[in-house]
Amino acid sequence: MSPARAQPVVRVRNLTRRFTLKGVLNGVDLDIRKGEFVALLGRSGCGKSTLLRALAHLDHEATGEGEIVVPARLSVVFQDARLLPWKRVLDNVILGLDGVDAKARGRQALAEVELPGREASWPYELSGGEQQRVALARSLVREPELLLADEPFGALDALTRIRMHVLLKRLSAVHNPAVLLVTHDVDEAIELADRVVVMDQGRIAADIPVDLPAQGPERSVRFTQLRRQLLGRLGVEDSLAHPDPAIA
Amino acid sequence: MSPARAQPVVRVRNLTRRFTLKGVLNGVDLDIRKGEFVALLGRSGCGKSTLLRALAHLDHEATGEGEIVVPARLSVVFQDARLLPWKRVLDNVILGLDGVDAKARGRQALAEVELPGREASWPYELSGGEQQRVALARSLVREPELLLADEPFGALDALTRIRMHVLLKRLSAVHNPAVLLVTHDVDEAIELADRVVVMDQGRIAADIPVDLPAQGPERSVRFTQLRRQLLGRLGVEDSLAHPDPAIA
Amino acid sequence: MNAQSRTALATALELPRGVREPLELPAAASKPAPARRRLGIPAADPLGWLLGPALLVLVWTVGSMTGVIDARILPAPWVTVSTAIDLLREGRLQANLLISAWRAAQGLAFGVAAGVIVALIAGLSLSGGYVFDGLVQVKRSIPTLALIPLVILWFGIGETMKVTVIAISVFIPIYLNTHTALRGIETRYVELAETLGLSRWAFIRQVVLPGALPGFLLGLRFAVMAAWLALVVVEQLNATSGIGYMINLARTYAQSDVIVVGLVVYALLGLSSDLAVRTLEARTLTWRRTFAK
Amino acid sequence: MNAQSRTALATALELPRGVREPLELPAAASKPAPARRRLGIPAADPLGWLLGPALLVLVWTVGSMTGVIDARILPAPWVTVSTAIDLLREGRLQANLLISAWRAAQGLAFGVAAGVIVALIAGLSLSGGYVFDGLVQVKRSIPTLALIPLVILWFGIGETMKVTVIAISVFIPIYLNTHTALRGIETRYVELAETLGLSRWAFIRQVVLPGALPGFLLGLRFAVMAAWLALVVVEQLNATSGIGYMINLARTYAQSDVIVVGLVVYALLGLSSDLAVRTLEARTLTWRRTFAK
Amino acid sequence: ATHEPAAKAAALEAGQLALDAPLPTRVPPGVTLAIGDPTTEQVLKHTGWIKDLPFQVKWAEITGGPAVTEAFHAGALDVGTVANIPPIHAIWVGMPVKMIAVRFRQDPADYPSFQLAISPKARINSLKDLRGKRIAYSPGQVQGEIVQRVLQSQGLTAKDVTLIELPSPTADVYVNALAGGQIDVAPIGSGAALKRYLDRFGTDGAKVLKSGVRDDFVTMYVREETLKDPGKAAALAAYVKVWGRAQAWINSHPDEWAQVYYVGDQGLSPEDARYVVQTNGKAELPRDWTEAIARQQGSVDLMAEATGRKPFDAHRLFDRRFETLSADAFAEAEGGPKLASR
Ligand SMILES: Nc1ncnc2c1ncn2[C@@H]1O[C@H](COP(=O)(O)OP(=O)(O)OP(=O)(O)O)[C@@H](O)[C@H]1O
Ligand SMILES: Nc1ncnc2c1ncn2[C@@H]1O[C@H](COP(=O)(O)OP(=O)(O)OP(=O)(O)O)[C@@H](O)[C@H]1O
Ligand SMILES: [Mg+2]
Ligand SMILES: [Mg+2]
Description:
The complex is a heteropentamer, with two copies of chain A, two copies of chain C and one copy of chain E. Chain A is an alpha/beta fold. In chain A, 34% of the residues lie in helices and 27% in strands.
């Protein structure tokens, strides 16, 4: 979790992208260092997925310019699970991997996302959250240098979500990838990230390091502060911020 | 929001469903009265979508038995947005509606989900959250007697989500439909529902009325209690329940 | 109280509608709405498609019995059966069929292989598309009969020529369907393959081929039929055997009973080879969730 | 430091790879990895498919000039052109073409209409499927040539017969492609239509027809070609005009120069009508995001 | 062995045989002929004479003018057996050919190859009633020529009747068109098809009229290129002799022939087969081709007028070095030399 003070592995400068007439990214600058975990927040439709797709060299449809430097070994968790419908679950996970141990690694990854024994299922036989976890397993199993994840936990219940957080943290610590995680859950962002970035108007509107004390009551205070700050950035006023007035 | 003490409009008795060998629903009993708002919680893969599909008479693939009574005019928000790719956004919203005012109503619904001016977009031109909102608009515009919504807010940011909550509450108050809402967000469930139902092992494991005082500090206390109770039901222990220790 | 719809589901949900529910709910039952209309259709009986041909045979039989169908032009079914038995007893039918089937099988094999390979080349690269796509259009717009002189020139009048002509007829639908199907693979999956860093060959094997399989299989249904039908043309040329030759010969002598036997054999061949492809379809496309399987 | 991939994107992202980036990043540039491989292919040049036919003409010309191609079998391009000019001057080519085009258009219209309607009936109802599906298989497995005697009996030898035979040839690919496409519509969308309470007619109009459109259009590409090709068969029968008649007559008289003109005309007709269908495809399928449009 | 048009033509230049040089009598080893003559093939196989041929044969089931022309073009065939029209067209499309054998029928008036089948619905009792009727016409085929000659014989022109262009690669098209009343008259080959037509529709009033036109001209022809090959020329000379013998054998073994070819090979019933053999009449091979040339000249002129081509001297179609070869072999087999020319 401790980002090396090295050259950034992701370097984005003045990135612009537009669809036909509509400008979506209007000059995004972003650096991510090796091992750094960055969460990306922003309104629905603000251009988060567009940015991720640009980083993955997938925006063949958009026009635009700017500079992008990313590691060659990157891996994307798409906003939709995007499993190949004609491959069984395990084959989806190990797609494109070769080597004798691919199957074993795929099986282990499936077990880690709590889907042991579902190797031979077809994608259509999975629930929404199960599909999402298979997609996560597919990304994690290839130990990327850069993980781009577009709301990978959106369809998960509270407990499963927590387990996935633990998994992601553990794997991050081992393989030390740079991570850019899109999420709508502010708590999740604070909990997981080293830095939270908020997009607005096609730009990075805020770039806030998560400096939580390790433990104790200070941690909780800082957490609440950070949450309030981020929600404010997202346009949610204190009074609306949480249905539970105890927190507001 | 005040459920009439009438005959339930949804009546499910001893519903069982299995896929090939796997039993998913093992005797579900559920009543929903007219105007009642029920939230459905449960682990990923526990059978929530299966139950919704059974209520909508869509489970042609599963086998099973049991009794189902539902109103004829029901409307489903699927877990995937499920927009027809060959129809523009407005046409997707008013699909199957006729009458001269269909277009106007569709346009209004789009404005209500904060997508004014996107009538002529193709579904592929929408972001994930935008697609989800179009699907929501499509369900709301037909003023159903029963609304079955499968995680309709999963891909929305905090602010948009709050606005959608407000919208749903307002429309519910006007048209008084029965609502069954699947969500993974416990706070959302408490905030919106009259009753929260938790599924486990293919059964309704808990059926908890949301009896929040209207205002004041009692409300916040009861809110926290309810959340703890529900999270407990979902297997999340207090210490894990929230990344923010202030709440635990 | 609103209109209500009720269904009680027996073990098999595909039970015919209108089956009585085991449980009664008096209050709700007072105003039962019709069960939600099912727009999708239930799984078809695997032998249901026999109904159409059976009806055809029925019409033919009744028409022949009542004399509505002129037996001099279309011999009655029983005449056809007895002619067929005669032909079988003489051994002519089997022998011809065997030879034709061997020709068709060879042509099919070469045509399918060429069709898939060229479709891949033309579908997966811009320049391949430029070179082949127009050429295939030119080829398929030229009547096979008019090509025969050139084919004879290049491949002689022996078996090579016959197998080549069949292969060419097979090539077109395989190419066109496979090519269209693979160009129709959703971008989502192509993007996925790109981010997973799939090699071109892995991309073809894991994404393109399975994704284009439904289209290929439809092409195969056309192709199998094309192979049989091409026999009628090629077996006019320097053939002394084969089912196409048999029909052509019978036409020369206006032997309508033999012609009809030939046509019935064709129909049976067509139905059974189509059935074979469809079975293959059902086996290989289990992953598809579509309107009707 | 890891391998890095860099791309600087000019206004059009489809710029050829290898274009120099405007910004330099010295540290990162020291170890640039190849840009992520793009498996999808960029949009094709709309005239690119002309390359194949152009190559063909080139081979033909060079072959004829060097004498590799025997002029008695395949007359040289310039001979073909001058023959075509002669035919045009005599007015024969235009007249034949016009008559043929009118026949093809009529047959196409009837065949497409019948194909779509029967595909809907057979595709959307179990019993319709039972009745029609097998029948269509029977029909398509029987060689048209062998059916001609029966067709003559039922439809005479006039224009009706000709249009009917063309319509039948057109019917098969339209039916088969549309039927397969509509049965291949994803269950998701059928379910959606069910929950929205769409009427059967609205379901057909809003879900089935647009969903089956890609398949139908492929069928149309086959059908248009089938209409032209059927001319060669029907214009043998009681015709004194038409492009098929012209080719047939030239064949009996072994006039290879006229035959080749006919074939070239066929190739041009095929290419241009196929182009028309593809343009229609591009217009109506804007909503599709596929591997290559 | 005959699949090398251009290359072979060039190679031949050296050792070529002039078209007026005497035919070599010895067939060198290794000569192969591709012959499209299924009936003779059957006779030779049945009689075992096939083993005595002094050259290799590749039999081809290729009949009919267009198919033979295509196979000639492709160099896939050396010998074609057709009626008299296709060689004329071959000349016109620039492929020089020569006839190397000619076959007529004895009593051609009684044993016509083609007869005019009359639809049950047409009121036609004699050739005089043809005016204004719908007649099936297939340009380029011998059936077409017959129709034109019949009209000529009745003092009619194409304008006096309705010619319906309907090629008949197979008899069933004409039979059904007649039965359905789509056409009134069609020339159908005497034999099984005609018998079948009468059997089936005779009760409805279907009739058959003799055309009165001679249509018994059958010829064996080859490309000049083939004749320039001394080996092949020698083989051809040998073949026409065997062919003559085979014609005589057919004449003298009608029942055996019916059984061997029409029943055994073509799948007709014995009854039909006998009928066909009977209506085929007896072959006659003229020892003098003067008459054949005159008749052929008539055909050339007629076709030239019909198709707008340039007429030519029919003599160039005949290779008279072969004139007596087949006829002598035929006559010998028939039992002693008898002059068959009239
Ligand atoms: N192919 C496209 N053509 C036109 N507009 C597009 C296209 N793709 C995306 N857009 C538009 O660009 C904007 C940004 O989309 P993007 O998917 O990046 O949003 P997002 O931040 O990921 O939102 P969400 O949180 O809802 O997924 C949206 O307004 C969307 O409508
Ligand atoms: N068509 C199917 N065939 C076989 N198994 C299926 C099928 N559909 C669903 N299942 C299984 O049934 C179980 C319940 O699925 P369901 O979609 O109802 O879960 P869910 O509660 O909606 O989960 P989530 O919150 O992840 O969407 C899952 O374990 C799933 O794998
Ligand atoms: Mg997004
Ligand atoms: Mg679900």
